[in-house]
Design brief:
This protein has 198 residues and is mainly α. 47% of the residues lie in helices and 2% in strands.
Length: 198
């Protein structure tokens, strides 16, 4: 009984199968499509866009480098403290709550240079070879007004960035209270030298 006849699977791409009107085979479509290469006009447009893109990137890089160099130049236009800034009085009263709030921020943002207790001996200050004031010594701040401290905290000084718009004005005034408190509380007294007697 011989071999069973197996029918070939049905395929819509079978050349013997008639296609509906308006439908062409994939082979015919590929033959009718334009060549895969770019035309001269497309190639010229591609090159123009490539050159234009490279020019824009180079321009952006040069302008960014100029801005960075201008910021790093010594004597560049740093903001200057005015007599009105120095004369400002601290409108925020010294409170335990205000000190607690700002002490936390001091620990995150300032203690790395100014030290946990305001002694000016933070790890980063030592690494950068900075000589900072020891705020525990009341004489280190006695000639500075609250307005001067507020201005320095807000705008920065030297390598220290200012708090500026990162913190509210009330918090910056509380920073002034905290800096002043380092010299007032007995916990941060500056050690006496061997030559001094009491």
């Amino acid at each position: 009984m011989g071999a069973a006849i197996r029918a070939a699977p049905f395929s819509i791409f079978d050349p013997s199968f008639p296609l509906p009107a308006g439908v062409e085979s994939a082979q015919n479509q590929a033959e009718l499509a334009p060549s895969a290469g770019l035309s001269c006009q497309e190639e010229a447009m591609r090159r123009t866009l490539l050159v234009l893109g490279a020019f824009l990137l180079a321009s952006f890089g040069i302008s960014s480098a100029k801005q960075i160099l201008a910021q790093e130049k010594p004597g560049s236009a740093e903001p200057k403290m005015t007599p009105e800034d120095a004369a400002k009085k601290n409108p925020v009263p010294l409170t335990p709550e205000g000190l607690a709030e700002v002490r936390k921020l001091f620990g995150y943002n300032c203690a790395m240079c100014h030290g946990k207790n305001g002694d000016g001996k933070g790890d980063l200050a030592a690494d950068m070879k900075l000589e900072l004031r020891d705020w525990r010594d009341t004489s280190s701040l006695e000639k500075m007004t609250d307005g001067e401290l507020f201005w320095i905290i807000s705008n920065g000084k030297g390598k220290m960035p200012g708090e500026g718009d990162r913190t509210a004005q009330k918090i910056r005034w509380n920073f002034v209270n905290l800096v002043r408190s380092f010299g007032k509380n007995g916990a941060g007294e500056k050690p006496k030298t061997e030559g001094s007697q009491n």
